[in-house]
Design a protein that fits this description.
Length: about 850
């Protein structure tokens, strides 16, 4: 009994202690309800007992109030009081309030109180704009609340009061209107009047014609249309009608088609179009009232394609002197482009001979005996390539073709034997000459390259010169031995190329930084790649010089864009008796060098060549796309110019030379800290004044680069000295429009020279503008002049360091030449074939023998 009593007392003590822990925090004062007029002050109080430090927060409608001026008043040792005050109470301050305390992981809350704000009514639903048909009834709704209540609503329509006041919320039934009209509502209570927003009743009407209809992209048989809707007539557009007309060469309508498309989006894809055909399109859009007028006609030309059929009716006539071939012309529907040439090939003795090209659907070839028993085929060629071959025709003597003398059969046999023996001797000589010429052509300054046995066989070579061939691994330089920053070391270590894999060749260029040399890079799988190596000056004395050079390589390491030059790797050349090696930056080899030199050669070279405007705009577009990529990655180039843009074998332009580039990590500009040699004629006005560089200052330089391209390499501001540039620009002067530059192209470049940087277009906008300009150029028809030869060797277009773009005609990797003059062709190969052509279209063989003007040119084989 005594033990049970002790146990009961012990449990009672524990229960009392736990109860004290739970009720250790108490509120000695709770907030009370407050009612105040709008604009007056209110104050809520709360007091808590049982905590050593104040940790009281105020809550409103379940959310914590963040206050930076909350004060606590000590009422005792563990007793605190706090207040929540509002100096000018507004409707948004109305709501339920309480205070909370966190104590030992448990939340304690005070009683709850309301703040009620009395004032003029505030709107919970204001009337919205209405679109309606003429005379059609509609409803308007308006709702407002106090306090104080009640709240009444009064309507005003077109400046006239509509009926008596009604309790809120109020719905006004309007029987219909015929014109645009304004309306609003008033809300009243004991404190005053509130006026709602003014709404408008719009009368639905026919939409306006769509605007800016354009073709944004074209593929072989597909055109992508995009347009902007005009005025919608205050009614949502439901669909648009796209009309398409195919036009003949004379401009007459060949066929017409109408297509209804849902909107949005305001775009449509036209498919199944005929290649190399003129089309015209327009758009009309419809709402519930009706259809809009049509937009203006927009004309476009679909791109060319490879012919879909072979020429038909191939016939021949064989005489003792020549072989005459004729075939039917292809119709435009199957030609699918502008005819450039007919390609004729023949197979003799099981071997395919070099093809010939002819402008007309006929050919006359001398040396008829060469074609005896040959199999002849013909195909048609456009700018996109050659179509299928016709069925082979075997050349054999006919009864009326080859005249044979009956009295001298034995003599004729001797002639045949002589001809066959001569052909055999010529064939063997040509093969030997071809082998010798190919081996000699493969020898280079660096060694001899042996031809592969197949398309995938690795190329091996014997180097004529290399570095550290006899050195051991101890002489191999590493990034860790340069004394550069750890960040730069980590960034470049995975692109470090051992020096033994590089074979340097002749110098391509030289400047203040050092030199650029041609080189061959041998990879681990024994493949050989032609590259360019940027070598720092050999008189470097510090790691700082090396680090500055390698920073440029670090920028390029992360670049992956077809119009930005890409880093292949970094190598280090160990010098004898020198502590520091020479850094070498390995880049793709750019066959045509820098863009500025290429432009100059087109005007002033030994053999000037034409660069049509669409090619020049393509150069600008390539640079703009590269700069758009760089600016999106916060790279400021600071030295954008034609000389710092490279042109590869494919004639795709790549932005290069990042020696002055900076990556901006915060803000949007970089300030040059010290004076350095800078290209003042390409620098923006604000950069000349304050040494501040931004993406907008790169846009200024891009405008100057556009001017360089359009003038084909002229120096900007001719006659203005570098020291005078700033004063020249500050007066508002700018580069003048080049003589052969279209106004819309000059407008784009001129917009890049706004004195206010923010007013210049972004590179993203420049890409769009230049793409539109590129689409505005129609294909250039073949140039009809006296006889000349056009190289038709080409490859697919690609980016910097791979693929190709050819301004001539792609011929499926074949080595062909086209004679543009009517009825003439040139066979290529190892033979010595020379021809003379006069402007009238006639031709003479090298051995003499005039040809009648009525006959086609003859190929002497």
């Amino acid at each position: 009994m005594h033990g049970l009593l002790l146990r009961f007392v012990f449990v009672a003590v524990l229960t009392r202690d736990a109860s004290c822990a739970r009720v250790g925090v108490t509120f000695s004062r709770h907030p009370s309800n407050q009612t105040a007029s709008q604009g007056n002050a209110v104050r809520l109080g709360c007091a808590v007992e049982g905590i050593e430090e104040p940790d009281v927060v105020w809550m409103k409608d379940g959310a914590r109030l963040l206050s930076s001026d909350q004060m606590f008043i000590a009422l005792g040792e563990r007793h605190w009081e706090t207040y929540h005050s509002v100096k000018s109470v507004q409707q948004q301050d109305a709501g339920q309030y309480w205070c909370e305390v966190d104590f030992h992981g448990e939340t304690f809350s005070s009683g709850r109180a309301w703040i009620t704000v009395e004032g003029v009514p505030h709107f919970v639903q204001e009337p919205q704009d209405v679109s309606t048909l003429p005379g059609e009834p509609f409803n308007l709704t308006c709702g407002a609340v106090g306090p104080p209540e009640p709240v009444e609503v009064l309507w005003w329509l077109g400046g006239i009061r509509e009926g008596p006041a009604k309790s809120s919320p109020s719905v006004l039934r309007v029987p219909g209107v015929n014109n645009t009209i304004k309306f609003y509502c008033e809300a009243r209570n004991a404190r005053g009047i509130s006026v709602s927003r003014t709404g408008t009743v719009y009368i639905k009407a026919l939409p306006a014609a769509p605007v800016t209809l354009r073709v944004t992209k074209m593929e072989e048989d597909t055109a992508f249309l995009l347009w902007q809707p005009g005025f919608t007539g205050h009614s949502e557009l439901s669909s648009c009608i796209v009309q398409l007309q195919r036009l003949s060469s004379s401009g007459a309508v060949f066929s017409e088609l109408s297509i209804t498309v849902p909107v949005p989006p305001h775009a449509h894809v036209l498919s199944g179009l005929a290649c190399h055909s003129n089309y015209s399109t327009r758009v009309s859009c419809r709402n519930e009232v009706g259809a809009s007028p049509f937009s203006t006609w927009t004309r476009f030309l679909t791109p060319e394609s490879v012919p879909s059929a072979a020429p038909r009716n191939l016939t021949f006539h064989l005489s003792e002197e020549q072989l005459s071939l004729e075939w039917a012309e292809l119709q435009k529907e199957v030609l699918k482009g502008e005819l450039l040439a007919y390609k004729v090939q023949w197979i003799l003795g099981g071997e395919q001979q070099e093809p010939l090209l002819f402008k007309e659907p006929r050919a006359r070839l001398s040396g008829a005996s060469r074609f005896f028993n040959a199999s002849v085929q013909v195909s048609a060629c456009t700018a996109m390539g050659c179509g299928p071959w016709s069925s082979p025709v075997v050349v054999l003597p006919t009864s009326g073709g080859w005249a044979v003398s009956a009295g001298a059969p034995k003599e004729r046999n001797h002639i045949w034997a002589g001809v066959l023996f001569a052909l055999l001797a010529l064939t063997v000589s040509a093969l030997l000459f071809s082998v010798v010429a190919r081996r000699r052509g493969k020898e280079t300054h660096f060694g001899r390259v042996f031809p592969p046995t197949g398309p995938d066989t690795p190329v091996s070579f014997t180097a004529a010169r290399s570095f550290n061939r006899n050195g051991g691994d101890a002489n191999i330089s590493t990034l860790g031995s340069l004394g550069i920053s750890k960040e730069l070391n980590n960034k470049l270590k995975d692109v470090l190329i051992p020096e033994r894999q590089l074979v340097l060749g002749h110098m391509l260029g030289k400047g203040e930084f050092g030199s650029v040399r041609e080189a061959f890079l041998k990879t681990d799988d024994s493949q050989v790649q032609k590259v360019a190596v940027k070598v720092l000056k050999s008189d470097i004395t510090s790691s700082g010089d090396i680090e500055q050079c390698l920073k440029e390589a670090a920028y390029m390491k992360d670049f992956h864009h077809p119009n930005v030059i890409q880093l292949i790797g970094v190598s280090l050349h160990r010098r004898h008796a020198q502590r520091l090696p020479v850094p070498m930056v390995v880049l793709p080899f750019m066959k045509h060098g820098d863009l500025h030199t290429y432009l100059l050669l087109s005007r002033l070279g030994d053999t000037p060549f034409d660069l049509p405007p669409n090619v020049l705009v393509q150069f600008m577009l390539d640079v703009a796309r590269g700069m758009e990529y760089l600016s999106a990655r916060n790279i400021i180039h600071r030295d954008l110019a034609a000389r710092n843009c490279m042109l590869g074998e494919n004639k795709v332009v790549c932005v290069a030379d990042f020696g002055l580039s900076k990556k901006i990590y915060s803000g949007d500009y970089y300030r040059q800290g010290s004076v350095s040699k800078l290209p003042v004629k390409w620098i923006a006005l604000e950069s000349l004044a304050d040494n501040v560089y931004t993406t907008q200052s790169d846009v200024w330089s891009f405008g100057v680069t556009m001017w360089e391209v359009m003038t084909r390499g002229q120096t900007p501001y001719p006659g203005v000295e570098n020291s005078e540039i700033y004063e020249y620009l500050i007066r508002g002067e700018r580069l003048k429009k080049p003589a052969e530059c279209r106004q819309d192209i000059y407008d784009v470049m001129h917009s890049c020279w706004s004195p206010v940087p923010k007013c210049r277009p972004t590179f993203q906008r420049l890409v769009v503008l230049l793409e539109e300009l590129q689409l505005s150029f129609s294909p250039v028809p073949p140039h009809k002049e006296s006889l000349h030869y056009v190289n038709l060797e080409g490859e697919p277009r690609g980016g910097c360091g791979g693929g190709s773009r050819d301004d001539g005609v792609p011929w499926d990797q074949e080595r062909d030449w086209l004679m543009v003059a009517s009825g003439a062709a040139l066979a290529i190969g190892g033979g010595d074939y020379r021809y003379i052509a006069d402007p009238r279209g006639g031709a003479q063989g090298e051995q003499g023998g005039d040809i009648d003007e009525d006959d086609d040119a003859v190929i002497h084989v």
